[in-house]
Amino acid sequence: MKVQKLTLADAKFERSPGQDDDIFTANLVDERHGGPITIGYGKFGPNQTLDAKIVVHDVMIVLEGRLSVSSDAGTVDAGPSEIVYMPKGVQVTIRSYEGGATTAYVTNPHWREAEDSR
Amino acid sequence: MKVQKLTLADAKFERSPGQDDDIFTANLVDERHGGPITIGYGKFGPNQTLDAKIVVHDVMIVLEGRLSVSSDAGTVDAGPSEIVYMPKGVQVTIRSYEGGATTAYVTNPHWREAEDSR
Fold it and tell me: Which of B31, B81, B34 has its CA nearest to residue B56?
């Protein structure tokens, strides 16, 4: 495997599995590439809500906009350059505000494989 | 483990191991927390150069400024919201420009344990 640069311009956004809201993911590195990590970008439209059981260790870095993440640890609110770490097994509700949000994410192991095998 | 928000304000920056340049790292989640992922922030002063053998899978998200990363795959240049994925085993030279740079990083497994056991 070689060093790779990843950019938003390379991201092909798709709807998150099992939902039809304005929430999109774009894996750029994942199980197809032979490493243990998935890397991608996420996009949330305005005022969206995503309820999810987190099936892998999931690191979300906010690049633009703001998101809130509610769990049994309470609610955190994250803006640009802030990171929300969602460990495997937690139940979360992620909400965007009027301005929507753009994120980068890194997961270990690969989230799509974990979702598919549920 | 619970959902955690991480911010630059929480980061306690230290010099990278084995070098005395103006390059600093701050782990916020790592081997002390029981998961498989290290998460932190990095800071590069102006015009710094770091030569490193990458001992873990290392994802670097540029938050501010610009960096170049040279390897046997060539040289890539990354600015805000761009990501450089450095797979385990690659040899890289990371350079900052006049404005320095701030990054977020995610590694699997934990980079500090891997460095310590070299």
Answer: B31
